[in-house]
């Protein structure tokens, strides 16, 4: 009997689920190795069946989400979160720094009918997570490698190198040094292939904090490039604002 996998969606843009679909022929190879039981984006719908591997995209933003993630965890041997929303709250976690009720009231004529939590939180704050795959979005390579490793009893390798290392490997000229462009590469883990620096743009920290991220020095460097404290705070409190390292650094600069 082939292992069973499921892909679940919470508050997100579906971009990380598309990483599966964009895998092309590799997805067909994967489908030959496993039974895809639940994957609404691709067709199969069976959320309550027990599976060997459950992928979760998106953050927890409603009371119903809190209950559903508990059921998913109970029915899964391994639970993997994919993307910035599931691992660090995503863009919707920006509500955590504002008055969520005021936001809802400013958008909806009858806010009392909106069932939404005051915060948007990563999956790990609600259930045990066996592996986090960072990125906005994750890459198909990340996802397929994780599935392959788990199926063969190998602990998946987590990429912790900084984007700066990827730039050096690809011989890209540093945009901070050569053009004084603010770039989060020194504190961000690679995984995207250094897409932004290779076209002369600064990194936006899509893949979250790298190992041993010196956020203190990063903030001072950004200040030296002319950014005001509020702008520096926004660099950290962006896509991965609920990553502990980024939240701490961003909150510190926000208070200045």
CATH superfamily of the largest domain: NADH:ubiquinone oxidoreductase-like, 20kDa subunit
Reported for the largest beta sheet, the result is:
5 strands, parallel
Structural class given helices, strands, pairing?
A: alpha/beta
How much beta, percentage-wise? 5-15%
> Under the CATH scheme, which class of the largest domain?
Alpha Beta
Strand order, biggest sheet? 2-1-3-4-5
Number of helical stretches of at least 4 residues: 12
Shape designation? globular
Looking at the structure, the CATH topology of the largest domain is Rossmann fold
Domain module tally = 2
What string, H for helix and E for strand, traces the elements in order? EHHEEHEHHEHHHHHHH
SSE arrangement:
Elements: E1 4-9, H1 15-21, H2 25-33, E2 35-39, E3 51-57, H3 63-74, E4 76-82, H4 84-88, H5 100-107, E5 131-133, H6 140-151, H7 163-169, H8 175-179, H9 195-198, H10 215-224, H11 229-236, H12 244-254
Parallel strand pairs: 1-2, 1-3, 3-4, 4-5
Q: How would you characterize this protein structure?
A:
- It is a single chain.
- The protein is of the alpha/beta class and 256 residues long.
- It has 2 domains: 4-151, 3-Layer(aba) Sandwich (Rossmann fold), CATH 3.40.50.700; 163-254, no CATH class.
- 38% of the residues lie in helices and 11% in strands.
- It contains 12 helices and 5 strands.
- It has helices at 15-21, 25-33, 63-74, 84-88, 100-107, 140-151, 163-169, 175-179, 195-198, 215-224, 229-236, 244-254; strands spanning 4-9, 35-39, 51-57, 76-82, 131-133.
- The protein has a 5-stranded parallel β-sheet with strand order 2-1-3-4-5, sandwiched between helices.
- Helix 1 packs across helix 6 (140-151) and helix 11 runs antiparallel to helix 12.
- It is globular and about 60 Å long.
- It starts with a strand and ends with a helix.
- 40% of the residues are buried.
- The model has no long low-confidence stretch (mean pLDDT 92).
């Amino acid at each position: 009997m082939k292992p069973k996998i499921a892909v679940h969606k919470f508050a997100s843009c579906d971009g990380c689920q598309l990483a599966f679909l964009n895998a092309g022929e590799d997805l067909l190879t994967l489908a030959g190795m496993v039974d895809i039981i639940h994957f609404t984006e691709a067709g199969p719908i069976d959320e309550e069946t027990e599976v060997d591997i459950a992928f979760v995209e998106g953050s927890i933003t409603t009371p119903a989400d809190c209950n559903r993630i508990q059921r998913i965890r109970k029915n899964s041997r391994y639970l993997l979160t994919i993307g910035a929303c599931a691992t660090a709250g995503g863009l919707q976690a920006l509500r955590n720094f504002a008055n969520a009720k005021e936001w809802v009231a400013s958008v909806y004529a009858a806010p009392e009918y909106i069932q939404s939590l005051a915060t948007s939180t990563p999956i790990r704050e609600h259930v045990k997570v066996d592996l986090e795959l960072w990125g906005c979005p994750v890459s198909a390579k990340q996802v397929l490698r994780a599935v392959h490793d788990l199926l063969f009893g190998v602990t998946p390798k987590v990429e912790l190198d900084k984007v700066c290392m990827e730039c050096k490997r690809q011989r890209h000229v540093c945009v901070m040094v050569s053009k004084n462009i603010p770039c989060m590469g020194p504190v961000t883990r690679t995984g995207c292939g250094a897409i932004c620096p290779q076209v002369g743009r600064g990194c936006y920290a899509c893949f979250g904090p790298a190992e041993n991220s010196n956020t203190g020095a990063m903030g001072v460097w950004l200040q030296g490039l002319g950014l005001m404290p509020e702008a520096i705070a926004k660099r950290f409190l962006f896509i991965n604002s609920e990553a502990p390292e980024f939240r701490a650094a961003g909150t510190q600069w926000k208070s200045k």
